Structure formats: C-alpha cells, structure tokens
Amino acid sequence: MATLTFEAERKDWDTYFMDIAYMVSTRSRCPRRHVGALLVQGKKLLGTAYNGAPMGVPDCSEAGCMISEQLEVELVDGVEKAVKKQRCIRTIHAEQNLLLFTDRIDREGSTVYVTDEPCWTCSNMLANSGIKEIVYHRGYPKDSDKVKRLMEAKGITFRQLLEYEPPAQARMNVINE
C-alpha cells in the first residue's frame, strides 16, 4: 500500500490572512482599486469586507466613479505646496465596511489585514476602533506619512508586507491618482 506524503510548504499566518484579504477584494466592483479587509483575533477570522457602493445602490461599474478633488497643503523641501488629490466617493471603503459589520467587543486588541494601506479617513476610524495592529500590502502614498504618524501616536502596530505576493486570481492594476 502506497503512503501519501505532502511536501507543500505551509504558509505563515501573515501570508494566509493576506491571501484571504486579496480573495475578498475580488468582490469589489470598483475599477480603480479592489480592496479587501479582515478582522482577526489571535488566529481566528472574525469578519471580512471589501470596498463598494452601499447595498442596493449602483456601483462604479454601473454608474461610473464619483471623483472628488481636494487640495491639501504638504511640506515639500521646507516649502508649503498645494497638492491636488482625487478620491472616488461613491464607495464605502473596505475598512469602513469591516467596522460596520463587526462588533466592537471583537475588535478590542485585534488585527486588521487589509490589501492596501488605509487612507486618512479609514485610519482615523481604525484608530478609534479598539484594534491593536494593521497589516497591509500595497502602499497608499496620498496619505502615508500622516497615517504612519497617527498610528504611532495611538500605539497601533502598523506593518507593510513588502515581500508578499498576492494570489494570481486577485491581482489587478491599481490607479494611483
């Protein structure tokens, strides 16, 4: 009788949970960026979410993106400079949906895995949600510096998985405007 052996390498927890976040992101219908988020307590998955329009409302693939332009003052080489930033405001972000559909008690001391670095608004919400750690893969340069400062001030561990490679079925080209 033949003995079966499995030589597949077991994934570490960060890779395992980020893979799930990326697969969740495939539910998004946003043409600019698919984002998935998970709430994890220890090794237990407590919730998933992705970015999209509110339930029952046409999404970006049906009604087009709803772009809002904002000017933000940034310090560049010691000089204040107005920088134009564009954001789609039709969708609820994955992190916001995650907070809407999970309980506060489950979030206390938990970790959020998210495919993309949270924007400023999501970071503020996460900072007030009871979580202790955020793990992300793709950077979001529009808000990165101020988000990192916020997380440091709140004592929230903020880690980017630089060597991570998403599952092939979940890859997409991201629009960074």
UniProtKB/TrEMBL annotation:
GO CC terms, sorted: cytoplasm
Species in which this protein is naturally found: Paenibacillus protaetiae
Record GO biological process: pyrimidine nucleotide metabolic process
Family: Belongs to the cytidine and deoxycytidylate deaminase family.
Protein name, per record: dCMP deaminase family protein
Domain of life: Bacteria
Record InterPro entries: APOBEC/CMP_deaminase_Zn-bd (IPR016192), CMP_dCMP_dom (IPR002125), Cytidine_deaminase-like (IPR016193), dCMP_deaminase (IPR016473), dCMP_deaminase-rel (IPR015517), Deoxycytidylate_deaminase_dom (IPR035105)
Keyword Metal-binding assigned: yes
UniProt keyword annotations, A-Z: Hydrolase, Metal-binding, Zinc
Database matches in SUPFAM superfamilies: Cytidine deaminase-like
